[in-house]
Design a protein that fits this description.
710 residues, 5-stranded mixed beta sheet, disordered N terminus, disordered C terminus, alpha+beta
Length: 710
């Protein structure tokens, strides 16, 4: 009979769904709830409502099922219901309550020892925090999921978690750290058949290299991602791979290639029926035309994008398009039309804000109704629990009384025996106290002597610390405050040269040149001195640093100097390890040494700089930066690391004599050593050592859906 009744209720629900009247749907739901004490029926009803996207009613039904399971002590389905409640709250954009229920699920599963759903819950919590922009919490929950995957050696789960951690870094603009995690995720998938995971990792690595300006490397990875997408015949992945290629060519200002790839991406997104992605690619093409001042073509693509956005009624996308239309008209000189589009953009944003406020108000009303229903069910549960507790109390009282009598009798026997033992122990304790008192007096005298010595040592340490601080502060203030007069001298010398240079004779012009050159060298000297003082004052946070990324960044930073000198910077990325260091100081160290190697070259020889690394038997890495420049005499190889030490004239080679002193200070702060080997006229090799670190499976730090990280 129960089955027929349930089928009848579902039939009523189907009829109401067809008519699409929320009031009728709510009435049927109320009828089923009032006439059902079966948890499975309530869950089935809630699942049906969820599929129909009737989230408020589905949520209320899930809550009733959860309360009913509490009464019946039915825990077999409880975690599934908790998960469904959490994900329904998430769909209603009520992130706070969604997180609360995910955490309830985690606590329950921790108790019963099932970790599969715990990992899933941590991932969902991380997604919510990432949407809210709380990257610290997103990172923390991703890390917990990663630890659980590592504990069961789930390579695919570990790689996905590492990938998502990389995405958290990416959206914070920390592309070096993101790249490190994406590379690790790709390496974990080497022997795995998960092509979708490999595609995401390759595309993400390409996007990172694009962000740090390494466009050629970015193209290599994105092309691999595109080939893999075609291999899997995943239409959506292919479309995003083409889009990413378009972004890279846009960054490198190859607009022709960029447009070709964007058009391919557009065709594939249309095939995939990805309206949201189609709008985004159309917007990128329009912005490309605006960059090239092809305003008519840009307008055509924006009109097309607006048509698709209105078709799917996407207010956020409509607002984006209005903003680009305003920019287009402003650049083309049509300021009146630009103003109108900007008003439409602001109106769309206000509408979005109002919808969010209304949704929030609806959530509050729904929470109130749910709380009311929970109170009603709670009263029923309490009545049944009280009856059960009364029986337990009566049985417990009888057992407790018998146990109490036993304890009293046993306590009497124990106390009698203890009194006899205590008397003997008291005598022994009195004797021990006398001995301890004598030892205590001796220790008091010793402590007084030690305290006196400690006070003297502390005073000396304070004097030394204060002296060091004063010296560092002086160097910082002197170098910082003197830069302004130096800049002023250089500026006014330039003004004099431009305004009155034609009135000066050759000697006057030469004197003016000496003033400007002296001010320039003073400014350079003060900058280097300021950087040296900052190395001492920085509070180091040592983290694992991928030296491959550091070398790529230094190569990019010195690209202009390499081009001017026609120099070659040679390195093998695979030879470089990961070390514990401070990222900023390590970049400064390598960049100073490579820049010096380029600068101190022989005019008749093409400068060649080579960077290598090897691991020693003492568990340390030795880095070498070798050049074919002018070389350093043996008697000068020790003093070059001192402050203001210069071996060459200022007219031949620029410099302040502080750079190598700064390098020495950085290496020492990173727990390493630096030295030099050189022959005059043949070249110089600078060596520095750093301790090696143990391998670890956990990332150093803090679900992107995504192949497209634009």
């Amino acid at each position: 009979m129960g089955k027929f009744k349930y089928i009848f209720y579902l039939f009523l629900l189907a009829l109401v769904n067809i008519s699409a009247k929320p009031d009728s749907l709510f009435s049927v739901q109320e009828l089923i709830i009032k006439n059902s004490n079966n948890t499975d029926q309530l869950i089935a009803l809630a699942d049906s409502l969820y599929k129909e996207k009737e989230y408020p009613l589905a949520l209320q039904t899930y809550m009733d099922a959860n309360a009913l399971m509490g009464i019946q002590e039915d825990q077999s389905r409880k975690v599934t219901v908790l998960y469904n409640i959490a994900i329904t709250y998430k769909n209603l954009n009520n992130y706070s309550l969604a997180i609360d229920y995910y955490q309830q699920l985690i606590q329950y599963y921790s108790f019963v020892g099932n970790h599969n759903l715990i990992r899933k819950a941590y991932g969902e919590i991380a997604v919510i925090y990432q949407k809210l922009g709380d990257y610290k919490q997103a990172y923390s929950n991703r890390l917990k999921a990663l630890e659980l995957y590592e504990s069961i050696n789930d390579a695919q789960g570990v790689s996905k978690s590492v990938y998502n951690i990389g995405t958290i870094f990416f959206y914070q603009g920390q592309y070096g750290k993101a790249l490190e995690q994406y590379k690790r995720a790709l390496k974990l998938l080497e022997n795995n058949k998960n092509k979708n995971g490999k595609f995401n990792s390759l595309a993400a690595i390409g996007s990172c290299y694009n962000r740090i300006g390494q466009h050629e490397t970015a193209l290599v990875y994105c092309q691999r991602a595109l080939d893999l997408a075609h291999d899997t015949e995943n239409t959506r992945s292919i479309s995003y791979a083409y889009h990413n290629m378009g972004e890279i060519y846009t960054s490198s200002k190859d607009y022709k290639q960029a447009k070709e790839y964007f058009l391919l991406a557009l065709d594939w997104k249309i095939k995939a029926e990805d309206k949201w992605g189609e709008i985004g690619t159309l917007r990128y093409i329009a912005e490309l035309h605006i960059e090239q001042k092809q305003y008519k073509k840009a307008e055509e693509h924006l009109k097309r994008a607006m048509g698709v956005a209105k078709e799917i009624n996407s207010l956020p996308r409509i607002a984006e398009i209005y903003k680009v239309c305003a920019d287009l008209n402003e650049q083309s000189g049509n300021y009146k039309q630009s103003s109108l589009y900007y008003k439409e953009y602001m109106l769309a944003k206000d509408t979005l804000l109002n919808e969010q406020i209304l949704a929030h108000m609806g959530d509050k009303k729904m929470q109130y109704e749910i709380q009311q229903r929970e109170r009603e069910i709670s009263l029923l549960r309490k009545e049944k629990e009280i009856q059960r507790l009364n029986k337990i109390i009566l049985i417990g009282a009888a057992i407790g009384l018998a146990f109490l009598i036993f304890l009293l009798f046993n306590r009497y026997k124990v106390q009698r025996n203890a009194a006899q033992t205590l008397s003997k122990k008291n005598q022994e304790i009195e004797q021990a106290n006398v001995q301890l008192n004598e030892l205590h007096q001796q220790s008091i005298q010793t402590n007084k002597l030690l305290e006196g010595q400690n006070l003297k040592i502390q005073k000396q340490n304070k004097l030394l610390q204060q002296s060091n601080k004063d010296l560092e502060q002086f160097a910082y203030v002197a170098s910082h405050d003197l830069k302004e007069p130096a800049r002023m001298m250089k500026s006014y010398a330039s003004i004099l040269s431009k305004s009155y240079g034609h009135q000066l004779d050759q000697a006057g012009k030469e004197f003016l040149h000496y003033i400007a050159d002296g001010a320039k060298r003073m400014e350079s000297l003060l900058s280097d001195l300021l950087e040296f003082s900052r190395v001492n004052s920085k509070k180091l946070e040592l983290t694992p640093i991928d030296v491959q990324d550091i070398v790529l960044i230094v190569n990019s930073n010195l690209s202009q100097q390499l081009a001017r000198s026609h120099a070659q910077f040679i390195y093998d990325l695979d030879a470089f390890p990961t070390v514990m260091a401070n990222r900023t100081l390590f970049i400064q160290l390598v960049q100073n040494l490579v820049s010096n190697a380029i600068k101190f070259n022989r005019p008749e020889v093409t400068p060649i700089v080579q960077m290598t690394c090897k691991k020693t038997e003492y568990n340390e890495y030795i880095f070498a930066i070798k050049d074919n420049g002018i070389g350093i005499a043996p008697e000068d190889q020790e003093r070059i690391f001192g402050m203001f030490e210069r071996l060459n004239s200022k007219t031949d080679y620029e410099g302040t004599g502080i750079g190598l002193a700064t390098c020495k200070k950085i290496v020492e702060k990173l727990n390493g050593k630096i030295w030099v080997r050189s022959k005059v006229g043949e070249g110089t090799t600078f060596y520095f050592s750093l301790p090696a670190i143990k391998e670890t499976t956990s990332p150093v730090l803090v679900e992107a859906q995504t192949a497209n990280l634009s």
